[in-house]
């Protein structure tokens, strides 16, 4: 193969038949070259997507909710100690609970309820 330059263009002239076949074979090999297998890349992407989906589901299932509803009523004593009273019939008889206030029904029920504590 002989290369020659005319102006800014480069031309190739083939001296023999073998040069042309070698060049054609090389160009075809370059055109067919793939750095990775396409099916392997697709499978890897699908596996990563499946793994990420599984991790998101695992985190969502094992996370605490935004709030935890606790039964009963929470009180703070004069010393600043917090304690939770379980929701029971005695609690409902002793107190009336509103969104803003807690009312004691009667002194007798109130004393009877706190007698256990």
Please name the defining characteristics of this protein:
47% helix, 4 helices
What would you say this structure looks like, in words?
The protein has 2 domains: 2-62, no CATH class; 73-114, no CATH class. The N and C termini lie far apart (104 Å). The chain has helices at residues 17-32, 38-62, 89-94, 107-114, and strands at 2-6, 9-13, 73-76, 82-85, 95-97, 102-104. Strand 5 (95-97) and strand 6 (102-104) form a beta hairpin. The chain is α+β, with helices and mostly antiparallel strands and 117 residues long. A two-stranded antiparallel ribbon has the order 1-2.
Topology (elements, then pairings):
Blueprint: E1 2-6, E2 9-13, H1 17-32, H2 38-62, E3 73-76, E4 82-85, H3 89-94, E5 95-97, E6 102-104, H4 107-114
Antiparallel strand pairs: 1-2, 3-4, 5-6
